[in-house]
Automatic annotation (TrEMBL), chain A:
Compartments it resides in: Cell membrane
Pfam families, sorted: BPD_transp_1 (PF00528), OppC_N (PF12911)
SUPFAM superfamilies to which the protein is assigned, alphabetical: MetI-like
Keyword field: Cell membrane, Membrane, Transmembrane, Transmembrane helix, Transport
Similarity section: Belongs to the binding-protein-dependent transport system permease family.
Organism: Microterricola viridarii
Name of the protein described by the UniProt record: Oligopeptide transport system permease protein
TrEMBL record, chain B:
Annotated keywords: ATP-binding, Nucleotide-binding, Transport
Name of this chain's protein: ABC transporter ATP-binding protein
ABC transporter domain residues: 23-271, 322-570
Species assigned in the record: Microterricola pindariensis
Pfam family, one: oligo_HPY
Family listed: Belongs to the ABC transporter superfamily.
NCBIfam families xrefs: PRK10419.1, PRK11308.1
């Protein structure tokens, strides 16, 4: 032991690292749930505030279009104003029919946002129910639901919607939303099924079983709340795509009827004046893009906040 | 102490040499949302060629971070914020990325902690070893393949040439760790960093691996830097010891000296909590004549212990509370096509558990011990045999009777990170069993939650917190509180303290002992860790390949193990026979 390579026995001064109680609970920080953490991470991102401000604005416009314009979008159309330049009270000029472009955009918001919200709601609710039952109970139910989902998955949404819309007698924002939902639910159901499968294998589910909690209650109380985050992310993003899909259908003439004001209809009608009066086409398109982009942006922020792996990478 | 150590010491080289590795005042910090959090605060250490050094500390003490800083493998948000790391006189913290790459692998080898996740599952073993050999420029082409075989043979895989084409999932944990050691040593590095190289392995495998590592590094004159939480391992395998606590070194020097005579209060605490074969069963402070709720090491209390044991025996009724009679469990494993293979996970197991006592079931991974726990908890069905609880056949229970059984027999699981729902606050988690069994009103349930938190020594404000804010030990205490909510008779603890640091483990074991005395609980303790068994159990069943090969009182098994397997298990405990200074 006389080897000089051995270092001497070093003991740190006790004041430097005072010994604290073993495994003491740190009570200095506020209690936080995973949702608090997600909120905290979203709060710090400018894109969250930009996108939510835009979304609040868009939803307000959709709910109370009268607040933003006093001009009636249809009644005040005078052919004398056809393709007219902006004037006082009509900041964005006139369409070929002599209608106020600004008023039409404002009133068109309602149809687009309604379709987007209702379709997302339908898809999310049905997807969560179907996906969680299939993933949790497995067996025949799972096989059946998954195969049916595959069939719908194989049909392109817009193509399927074209076929379905052409047989529906009355076309309203509600029916358009319903038709879009019919073809879009398998995506959410699949995501939910996967999340439920992994959550139902976790130890806390076994623990609850051993505590005597019934199987269905475990699904409701533990499995679903722990599987819902990815669904929320996809739902936020798909809201934007539903608005685009509605515009596409309306553009093709099989979405909302021309009597219902919507951006898709306006874009379709503006085709003819693209050379003479391009803003009639560009302005509703811009409104559509801004709406869709703000939902996509929000979806992005939500995904980063709910996915801890993505958060750690930043 | 062991032979290895003495042989190492005899290889005295001239004393004027410069150290192989010298760390001066190293500071490492992690960037978080709340600013820079220091993880390592001014660490100094010196390692000479041919020496072995162990860094010991609890999780979060900065030991792994220090090791990662040496070879520039800190995770993305971490960075060295001060100090220097001199390796053969070169400061590694200032080297450009290209030169660090050259040092990594060729001069400093690294054996990572988890053999299960550190081999790439899509490449075969041969490819991965060759990759390391080629990357370090040791050999190319055909020669690399031959070298790979040699490396694996040296790492203890005798049939290496046939196994090159196999994939990681075809290897057991111990074999994978050998592959990783082989890769780490493939370039004959001057320094090998082994980060918890064996914590995921069974004790007997651990001993083989450590022996082998010792032989290899001695043959090549490689210095070894162990990162471990296991004091016994450090005492047995390293000449030098560095104890880290909250990012700082609190004590360093010769390992034997430190362990025999710890000076810093933290080291003293660590040493006194380290379970070893010399430990005795923890006694509850609430027992009239016990002096302190500490873990006793010596022979001082033998008299009281014998008295206590006699007392327990007297108190025990004739009929066991749980009686397991010739129970088997067979799983059908699907083969290709419609064929099935039968796997006997549990084979003709019989034992009894007396009320108010602790029975430990010990075994290595795959011995069927956890399956026994699941059978008793009725989470799996019994293939043959019979389990009786308080005179009732457990398998026949249905509906309300099963619910009543679940109230009386509660589990505590191994993984404190997985067994609590992350979306549930602690209060809701503990109240869940009360709610499921419709016990009391909302107000009464709240009162019970507070009472339970107090029993597991957590402040009342814990009930608003979420599992992600708690440490592993705190989560495990919550799991115990949840299990106690329905005032059960039996707790089935499946590896309940295995994932915890020594000090926290000691704390939980003390807590369990006190609760047992206070509430008259019966424990069934499933574990792979014999040293823990010594601290908590009255009776032991040793399992191997689905069968109980030895069952007796704890003292009997530890003092006079009958089976060679039990003897091997006992001998494999690292530092098991080392006498710690208390």
């Amino acid at each position: 032991m006389q080897n000089r390579k051995f270092q001497e026995h070093f003991v740190a001064p006790i004041e430097e690292t005072p010994v604290v109680a073993v495994d003491k609970l740190d009570e200095s920080q506020k209690a936080r749930s995973t949702w608090d953490d997600a909120w905290d991470s979203m709060r710090r991102r400018p894109s969250f505030w930009i996108s939510s401000a835009l979304i609040v604005l868009i939803v307000t416009v959709a709910a109370f279009p009268g607040l933003f314009t006093s001009v009636s979008p249809n009644l005040g159309c005078e052919l004398a104003n056809s393709n007219g330049a902006p004037t006082a009270g009509h900041p964005l000029g006139f369409t070929r029919q002599g209608c106020d472009v600004y008023a039409r955009i404002i009133f068109g918001t309602q149809a687009s946002v309604t379709v987007g919200l209702i379709a997302t709601l339908l898809v999310t609710i049905s997807g969560i129910i179907v996906g969680s039952l299939a993933g949790y109970y497995g067996g025949f139910l799972d096989a059946f639901v998954s195969r049916v989902g595959d069939i719908f998955f194989a049909i392109p949404t817009v193509l399927g919607a074209i076929v379905l819309m052409s047989v529906i007698p009355e076309r309203t924002p509600l029916t358009v939303a319903f038709v879009l939902a019919v073809f879009a639910w398998p995506q959410i159901a699949r995501i939910m099924r996967g999340a439920v499968l992994s959550a139902s294998n976790s130890d806390y589910v076994t623990a609850s079983t051993a505590l005597g909690v019934s199987k269905f209650k475990i699904l409701l109380r533990h499995v679903v709340p722990n599987s819902i985050a990815p669904v929320i992310v996809v739902a936020t993003i798909s809201l934007g795509t539903f608005i685009v899909a509605e515009a596409t259908l309306s553009f093709l003439g099989i979405g909302l009827p021309p009597t219902v004001m919507s951006w898709g209809n306006d874009i379709a009608q503006a085709q003819t004046s693209i050379r003479t009066n391009p803003q009639v086409l560009l302005l509703p398109s811009a409104a559509l893009s801004i709406t869709v982009l703000s939902f996509l942006m929000l979806g992005d922020v939500v995904r980063d906040a709910l996915d801890p792996a993505a958060r750690a990478r930043r | 102490m062991t032979q290895i150590l003495n042989e190492n010491q005899s290889e005295t080289i001239d004393t004027s040499e410069t150290p192989l590795l010298q760390i001066r005042n190293l500071e490492v910090g992690f960037r978080t949302q709340r600013g820079l959090v220091p993880a390592v605060r001014g660490v100094d250490l010196t390692l000479y060629a041919g020496q072995s050094l162990a860094i010991v500390g609890e999780s979060g003490s900065g030991k792994t971070t220090t090791a990662q800083a040496i070879i520039d493998l800190l995770p993305g948000t971490g960075s060295v914020t001060g100090g220097e790391i001199l390796f053969e006189g070169r400061d590694l913290t200032k080297l450009p990325a290209k030169e660090i790459q050259d040092v990594r692998g060729r001069l400093i080898g690294y054996v990572p902690q988890d053999p299960m996740s550190n081999l790439n599952p899509v490449w075969n073993i041969g490819f991965q070893v060759e990759e390391a050999i080629k990357a370090n420029g040791i050999a190319q082409g055909k020669e690399a393949r031959l070298r790979a075989i040699q490396v694996l043979q040296e790492a203890g895989l005798s049939d290496a040439s046939e196994r090159l084409k196999q994939y990681p999932h075809q290897f057991s944990g111990g074999m994978r760790q050998r592959v990783l050691i082989g890769i780490g040593l493939s370039a004959r590095p001057k320094l090998l960093i082994a980060d918890e190289p064996t914590s995921a392995l069974d004790v007997t495998v651990q001993r083989q691996i450590l022996d082998h590592l010792g032989t290899l590094t001695r043959d090549y004159g490689t210095s070894v830097l162990f990162i471990t939480h296991d004091l016994g391992l450090a005492a047995e395998r390293a000449e030098q010891l560095v104890v880290m606590y909250r990012g700082k070194i609190v004590e360093s020097g010769s390992s034997q000296e430190i362990l025999a005579n710890p000076q810093h209060p933290y080291t003293q605490r660590l040493v006194s909590a380290a379970p070893s074969l010399a430990s005795r069963r923890i006694q509850s402070a609430k027992h009239a004549d016990a002096a302190a709720p500490a873990i006793f090491s010596g022979d001082s209390l033998d008299a009281t212990l014998i008295a206590r044991a006699a007392e327990r025996e007297q108190a025990a009724p004739d009929k066991p509370l749980i009686s397991v009679q010739n129970v088997s469990k067979t799983y059908r494993i699907r083969q290709q096509g419609f064929k099935y293979n039968e796997l006997k996970a549990v084979n003709g197991v019989s034992f009894g558990v007396q009320r108010g006592t602790t029975t430990a079931i010990v075994g290595e991974s795959g011995s069927g011990k956890s399956t026994v726990a699941k059978l008793i908890l009725q989470l799996e069905s019994i293939t043959s045999g019979k389990i009786e609880f308080d005179g009732q056949d457990v398998a026949a229970l249905k509906g309300a009777d099963l619910l009543k059984f679940r109230r009386r027999v509660q589990p505590v699981f191994q993984d404190p990170y997985g067994s609590l729902d992350p979306q549930y606050s602690v209060g809701n988690t503990i109240a869940e069993p009360l709610l499921a069994h419709k016990v009391g009103t909302a107000k009464e349930r709240q009162a019970r939650v507070l009472e339970l938190l107090d029993q597991v020594s957590l402040p009342a404000s814990t009930r608003y917190r979420y599992p992600s804010e708690l440490s592993g030990g705190q989560r495990q205490r919550i799991a115990v509180a949840r299990a106690l909510a329905l005032k059960p008779d039996v707790l089935v603890l499946d590896e309940a303290v295995s994932a915890l640091d020594v000090l926290v483990q000691g704390q939980i074991l003390n807590l369990l002992t006190e609760l047992q005395t206070e509430l008259g609980l019966t424990y069934l303790f499933i574990t792979h860790d014999l040293a823990v068994v010594r601290l908590i159990a009255d009776n032991v069943c040793v399992m191997k390949k689905g069968e109980i090969i030895e069952a007796a009182t704890t003292d009997e098994v530890f003092d006079n193990p009958r089976e060679t397997y039990t003897q091997d298990l006992l001998a494999a405990i690292p530092g098991g026979n080392f006498v710690f200074g208390r």
